[in-house]
C-alpha cells in the first residue's frame, strides 16, 4: 500500500536519514523503534511532507511521488490519504473536542457541518470520549487530549495513520488508556506506522517491528522474532538497554 524508497534527509551537517526503505501493506501495524536521535520522527514527517526530504520516493498505491520535488497536488493527495498523531497532540485550544475533530473534515475536506459532526461524534465515541464532545483541551487530561488527537485522525478515514511517539508526553498513569485505544483501532484493521518507546505495544500489537539506528534500518521482523532473536549486534545492545 505504501512503499518508501531510499529516503535521505540532513539538517546541515547532520545526516538524519541515510537511505531508508519501507514497505507497508494494508492492515499492517508497523512499530519503529530505535535510540533517541536515530531519525524515527523525521522519517514520519518526511512521509507526510511536514519535512521535505533531500531525496526519496513514495509509492502510494497508484501514486508515485518524489519526496524532494512533489507537486502541490501530490502533497495534497498524500496528506489526504494519511493522518498524523502528534506527540504533543496539536489540538486547537480554542475549540472543543468535537470541533477539533470536525475541523479537518469541514475545512480540509469541504464536508457539510452536520455530516462532519456525526462522523466526529462516532470517532470520539470510539476513543471513549462520548461525555467530552463540548470540553476544551484545557479541561481534558493529557490522555484524553491524545485520544481526541486519535479521534481526529480516525475521523479522516485515511489509508494509514502515522503516530509520532503518541504517549511520550504523558504522565505514566495515562499511557495505558492511549495504548488501549490504539490497540482497538489496530484490531479493526487500521493501517498504522507507529514510532514509540512502548515495547509492550510493539510486542503485543505490531505485526512488524523496524529498528533504526544512525539514520538507517538496522533490522526488521515480526515482533516475536525481533525481541527473542535479534540478529544484529546494534539491535541486541538496544534491547538490552530498554528491556
Ligand atoms: P528520533 O525520532 O529517532 O528521536 P529525530 O528524527 O527526532 O529522531 O531526530 C534525528 C536528528 O535530527 C536529531 O539529531 C535531531 O536533533 C535532528 N533534527 C530533527 N529535526 C530537526 C530540525 N527541524 N532541525 C534541525 N535538526 C533536527
Brief rundown of the structure:
Keywords: ATP-binding, Cell membrane, Membrane, Nucleotide-binding, Transport. The protein has 243 residues and is α/β, with parallel strands linked by helices. Helix content is 40%, strand content 25%.
Question: What features would you describe in this structure?
Answer:
It is a peripheral membrane protein. GO terms for molecular function: ATP binding. Its main location: membrane. Residues 2-239 form the ABC transporter domain. Keywords: ATP-binding, Cell membrane, Membrane, Nucleotide-binding, Transport. With 243 residues, this protein is α/β, with parallel strands linked by helices. 40% of the residues lie in helices and 25% in strands. The chain has 9 helices and 10 strands. It has helices at residues 40-47, 72-81, 97-108, 113-126, 142-155, 172-187, 199-204, 223-228, 233-242; strands at 2-11, 14-24, 29-33, 55-60, 63-66, 82-85, 160-164, 192-195, 208-213, 216-221. A 6-stranded mixed beta sheet has the order 6-7-8-3-9-10, sandwiched between helices. The protein has a 4-stranded antiparallel beta sheet with strand order 2-1-4-5, with helices on one face. Strand 7, helix 6 (172-187) and strand 8 (192-195) form a beta-alpha-beta unit. The radius of gyration is 18 Å and the shape is globular. It starts with a strand and ends with a helix. The model has no long low-confidence stretch (mean pLDDT 97). Bound molecules: adenosine-5'-diphosphate. Adenosine-5'-diphosphate binds next to strand 2 and helix 1. Residues 11, 14, 16, 34, 36-42 line the site of adenosine-5'-diphosphate.
